[in-house]
Amino acid sequence: MDLKQLNDFLMFDGAFGTMLQKKNLIKLGELPPVLNFTKPDELTEIFKEYIAAGSDVVTTNTFEANRFKLEGSGYSVEEVVKQAVKVAKNSGAKYVALDIGPTGKLVEPLGPLSFDEAYEAFKEIVVAAPDDIDVFILETFSDLLEIKAALLAVKENSTKPVICSMTYNEDGRTFSGTDPITATITLQNLGADAVGVNCSLGPDDLIPVVEKIVKVATVPVIVQANAGLPKIVNGKTTYTITPKEYAESVSKIVDLGVDIIGGCCGTTPEYIQLIREALNKREYIKKHSKFIPAVTSSTRTEFLNEGVHVIGERINPTGRENLKEALRTGIYDPIIAEGLKQEREGANILDVNVGLPEINEVEAIKKIVTELTGVCPLPLQLDTTNPMALEAALRVYPGLPIVNSVNGTEKSMSEVLPLVKRYGALVIAL
Question: Would the pTM of this model clear 0.85, i.e. be above it?
Answer without folding.
Answer: yes
